Amino acid sequence: MKESTGSLRAFFIVIGLLGMIGGGLGMLGVLVLLAAKPVWGVLLGACVVINLALSLAYFYCGVKLPELLKTNVGFVLKVLYASLTMTGVGTLVNIVLGLFTVGGLLPTLISVLISIYLINSVKRLSLQREEAADGVGFTPF
Questions:
Q1: Residues 66-90: b if buried by 16+ CB within 10 A, e if exposed
Q2: pTM for this one?
């Protein structure tokens, strides 16, 4: 399945908004955890803040995607690589803290696969825009 700029744009916006909502709720959990176990609360708080920043970046990428594909595709790719990295870091933190379960493996794998798919889609759309701008593959009839 090949994504269009519009569908990819909608995906980035929706994921960004959902992430911001989840991050807001996550901050409530941080406040509760800070009172009970301060060290864990700080660790979770750092993860929540980073994920909130990524959610804002996803939203920004969605709003500006057509322009970013032309002028700064590297920024979009950095956001996607950062998200993929945070998935790995979050998984490692959960393993170290003894919180990772076999049931958590499927969502982690799905997240990794989606990130890889998005990276490939953004690269493909960027290349198509470059080719269209250069006139490569353009036929007038």
A1: eebbeeebeebbebbeebbebbeeb
A2: 0.84
